[in-house]
Amino acid sequence: MAEIKVSELSSEHAFGARIAGLNWDNINDPAVRERINATFVERGLIVFEDMEPSAKMQVAVSKIFGPLKDHPTKSTPRDGETGDEAEGVIDMHYDPKKGNNDAGGLVEIDGQVLARFSPWHFDHCYNDELNYAGVLRSPIVAPEGGRTGFMDGIELYKNFPKDLLAQIEGLNVIYTLDTRLTKQRFGVNFKAFEDNSPPMLALLKEVAIFPRAMHPAVWTRETGEKVLHIGPWMSVGVEHNETAEFEAVYDAVCHEINRQGTGNAAYWHEWKPTDLVIWDNHRMVHAVEGCDAKHERQTLRTTIKGDYGHGYFEDGKKIGEVFREVA
Questions:
Q1: What is the CATH number of the domain that holds 102?
Q2: What is the pLDDT of residues 86-103, one digit of tens each?
Q3: How many helices (H) and strands (E) would you count in the chain?
Q4: Is residue 67 part of a domain?
């Protein structure tokens, strides 16, 4: 049986790993799966290279790390290729020929209009529970741009300016389901265009009843490391500190996260259709740089169940109660 090969992500990063040689011959081998999981716990991100570019393979790799979880919003597009076997595979597809301005809308940065831009964030921040991980592949790759960036919260905590860290540690950040970039208040470094697409209009019906969620700016892993875990996108302030004075502090924190993302703190992945990338959603933040709006781009994401236990809704509700109200 062929062995997998594990190597570092890059010489510039203390997190992440690359794995080659995973295929149908060894994917169910217990020793292989144990090694992959141990690598993931230690490194927080894995790039699987030269993989079969299929939904079936994506689901199989995802299940190495745990059971799948459906997306917490009903309006998010699902992938039709995988059927019932892959509950929770979501389809983030921008096609300029169809004019479907979904999954984040359009922005202008330095005079260029970009599609599929996503600021720094962690998935399901607007929920009381955080999924353990996300698995992403890109069947349709833009000819330029469209990279996905990742930053490790453990390294961010170590390297963040101490004065800013001291003001935010021990506090909870408030997040909402409203993903409209025109509504982002902190760390804004782009010009956003209104998104009136059908998926967004459907989402806004859920936004209207979805409670605000709280997550710690810093939390401590079972292994002892402290994690700085803040996403400027979808955050609307800091719990018990919703004043103009403290919002200026929080805005400085978010701009510093952006600044870190332009340096060696971030790994920016250049996509190939044969790549699969998994990241620890409790530890990492990620972003998408966007691509020229004339290019088509598609990513498919699988969500892995799991929670770190530190998030909660402002009014004490649970997600099941929220969706009973939507129905």
A1: 3.60.130
A2: 455 788 888 888 755 444
A3: 7, 21
A4: no
Parent domain of 115:
72-269+285-298+308-326
Q: Would you say 215 and 229 are in contact if contact means Cβ atoms under 8 Å apart?
A: yes
Site of tokens 């921008």: 94
Q: Is residue 140 part of a domain?
A: yes
Its pTM stands at 0.91
Domain total in the chain:
1
Helix (H/G/I), strand (E/B), else coil: 325: helix
Of the candidates 145, 180, 171, the residue with the CA atom closest to the CA atom of residue 229: 171
pLDDT tens-digit profile of 53-72? 999 999 999 999 999 986 45
A 10 A CB-CB count for 161 gives 13
Strands (DSSP E) along 87-220, which ranges? 90-94, 106-109, 112-115, 118-121, 133-140, 148-152, 172-175, 191-192, 213-216, 218-220
